[in-house]
Design brief:
The structure is a homodimer of 340-residue chains. The first copy, chain A, has 340 residues and is of the alpha/beta class. Chain A has 11 helices and 12 strands. In chain A, helix 1 crosses helix 10, helix 3 crosses helix 5 and helix 8 packs antiparallel against helix 9.
Chain lengths: 340, 340
């Protein structure tokens, strides 16, 4: 697999992104990378490490898109930015299978949609991060913010793309799909989800029905479907609440000498909980529905998580994700024909 | 204050609801209660306790609305149910200031709206539970499920009712209001919230702007505004995630002998965290925008939390909540006039 890597995106680029690329190369002997960004800077960063130079190509792209810029206009204007060049390489070169960027979500979305293009038949590409669950399994949430205003048919496509993703990358044969709603009963929901519910039920997928958000992380589901606004609220609430509870635990522990003594014995266990909850360690969020594999790494990625995101992109490409999404989307047409 | 209490709602009625009523009477010497439900059963439950009988009235209402029934038809058909009778007493008797029920949310909503009626000018009454925050303060979330499909003007009214509530019951002079969105920037949001944002900004309230859901429980806000679908997802995600993290902490602790020893020292501290996070202990969710005070107690209420819900209803009535909401709603008219 060959992956294009935007070296100048994210809070810790280029130091951590270059280091992450080197780590990814070390972890997978078949991986090849094309690094985009200021060639001089990339090469001087690369000099810090020993790595298999035969598997690394560098493409000069000295411009950088900042987080403050309007994503759509930045993509149009900064033709020599590390992100746009990575997108164009992905689009034009058959030997490149995927792309990773830790740039701003808006810019990665705009670059992927306008420069790489949507997969045929996809109405709206969607961000699908994978979250940790109580059972230790992973659950994919589509969409978590790419589309804040949705139609029912978008939600149907989100479900199908989520199914493909969990199959291609996690090897789950028949992923359990749930629709995020305000109750588990079939009739619960708003106008959007009620219509989506009826359509999802008609499809040949493992649709288990409506789910209450309190059960999102139980591990009983593999794919959670929501419009991007609701998905974003779910993702961010889970993140904020987990941090808050861990903080409260810490405060409670520090409030008494007895507890402090207890905490000395528990340090390792509590750190494990923090690690288990850290969805940043799960790599990035794939942008599903683009013509080739795209992974949006977290803006705060360090070298380790950036390497995970690169490995994830390679795995998505190896798993034949885009072809699988095409097959899944064909189910909607089949279902529509059956109903007609 | 005199509060009507639906004794036959909730999972633990009538035992815990009657006990809760007695606890509430004991805690507030000025409180009077009108208990509705099967008179014989209520009186035999009351016999278990010593209480000031002069402050308790019982009204016979032998029918019970179950959770499985369609709320709207149950309210229409079961005229002698404890809930409908409580609603009708609240509507018809000037000496009754509020009502508490632990019945199903749908039934309490339907009973309040159709039997008691909306406050003049209110388009959609809303459920507004109060949640714990990291700073120890409380934050009110309007709406958390009464209205799953909203127009921008509903969100504006939710904000104003939330402001009234936090002022009347929590004594916060100028509550900080935030709109739940997908980013903090002014332009972030979906069609609904963008329009609501513009309207909220034009009002004479302490509107601090958009908020990301990860900051919902930081304690930096007093009122969070969302449509009922999004509010419900936020509330349930926070609840589910808090439970999950506490469970992970417990699992981690039990996984090693060292940790178990540590936990013995920390038991009290960890229990405090669990208590701090338990929004059931905060009483019930007020239904804002009804012509008189209504509190929906949790279905799983025990005597203690049911007593808190009754005290909360009394406090809402004492604080002049309904009159204050009327004043707040007038601000919209004032703002519309100023813009015209």
């Amino acid at each position: 697999m060959k992956i294009a890597v935007d070296i100048f995106g994210g809070d810790h680029s280029p130091v951590e992104t270059v280091k992450g690329a080197v780590l990814a190369l070390g972890a997978d002997k078949d991986l090849k990378l094309v690094l985009t960004g200021d060639k001089g800077v990339i090469e001087s960063e690369l000099k810090k490490y020993s790595y298999d130079a035969a598997r690394v190509e560098t493409v000069d792209a000295p411009e950088v898109i900042s987080c403050d810029e309007s994503p759509t206009s930045a993509i149009r204007v900064k033709k020599n930015s590390s992100l746009v060049v990575a997108c164009e390489l992905l689009k034009s070169r058959d030997d490149i299978d995927g792309m990773v960027s830790a740039g701003s979500t808006g810019a990665v979305l705009a670059g992927s949609i306008f420069k790489v293009g949507r997969l045929k038949g996809v109405q709206r590409p969607a961000l699908a991060p994978v979250l940790p669950t109580l059972k230790g399994s992973d659950v994919c949430l589509v969409d978590c913010g790419a589309n804040v205003d949705c139609k029912p048919e978008y939600l149907v496509q989100f479900a199908l793309m989520g199914v493909s993703y969990m199959r291609a990358v996690y090897g789950i044969v028949n992923p359990r799909v749930a629709l995020v709603s305000v109750g588990v009963e079939d009739e619960k929901g708003n106008e959007l989800t009620k219509e989506a519910f009826a359509r999802l039920k008609a499809l040949d997928i493992n649709f288990v029905g409506n789910m209450e958000a309190r059960d999102a992380l139980t591990g009983d589901y593999d794919v959670l479907v929501a419009d991007g606004f609701v998905g974003n609220v779910l993702l961010k609430t889970a993140e904020g609440t987990a941090k808050m509870v861990m903080k409260l635990v810490k405060n409670a522990v520090m409030s008494s000498t007895l507890s402090k003594i207890g905490a000395l014995f528990m340090k390792k266990s509590l750190r494990k909980v923090k690690d288990d909850m850290d969805y940043n360690k799960k790599g990035g969020a794939p942008l599903l529905g683009i013509d080739k594999v795209v992974v949006k790494a977290h803006g705060s990625s360090n070298a380790e998580s950036f390497a995970v995101a690169i490995a994830q992109a390679a795995k998505m490409a190896e798993g034949g994700l885009t072809a699988d999404i095409k097959n899944e989307l064909a189910k909607v047409v089949a279902s529509d024909n059956a109903q007609a």
